[in-house]
Amino acid sequence: MRICAVLCSKSTKIPHDQNAAFPYNPHMPRAKHNISRQRTRGYAITINGLFTARSKCLRSLRLEDGDIETIRSDIAAIDRVLLNVLGYSGDIEAVSRDFKRNPSFGRGELLRAVLDVLRKVQAPMLTRELTVAVFEAKGLTLPPGETGRSRINRVRKICQQVPGICEAGNGSQAWKIKRRP
User: Cα angle vertex 147, ends 151, 131, to 5°?
Assistant: First the structure.
């Protein structure tokens, strides 16, 4: 993505048009930069779009997807447009974030990992032990706190919903694969 360098150049005064539908805005010279007026105040739609583009650039930079120098120059150009052309006065770094999270497991991958771990073990496994084994098989560690609890609950939900997995029946929530007779 290349941001047009024309948007970042110094603005010149444009004479006020008495018959214009919108009042003259000295921060947004229409004729020179060719950015159309919006019906929202403060160009919120354009600013939001530029923050989205900046977030995508940050993600590409983090994942090293493409030419690093080009991505850095795109981010700098977006920042110049936000500050100089649109007059954004907030903290750009605080507002922009990485665009998407990287999930630990893809679609159906957690289910397959749970089934693989249960096939390999002989004895029933507690939900926490099963979750730790699944994450270790993937090369990850189970984080402490709320994130770890939510991942344990995801594994428990999978075990409850899949008909091929049953509770061991010894009073605790231990899981095993149903064996065919």
Answer: 30
